[in-house]
Design a protein that fits this description.
70 residues, mainly alpha
Length: 70
Amino acid sequence: EMLRSLVGSEMCIRDRLLTLSFKALKLYTKGTLFFISIAGVVLSSILIFFTLYFAFKTFKTLLDALFSDS
């Protein structure tokens, strides 16, 4: 239960950052704020890849535990 809550919280933070970054990209077309919004999109993309990586790693561990011969 606690793990599900933490995963939901991480997803919420990542999605909020991604949404705000794309809104900032539409609003700011040049200057420092434009580069900050690009950094937000890049950071959000990295977080998405990490989430997918650890999700598949956890799924593999679960499958190994359920279907191991020992």
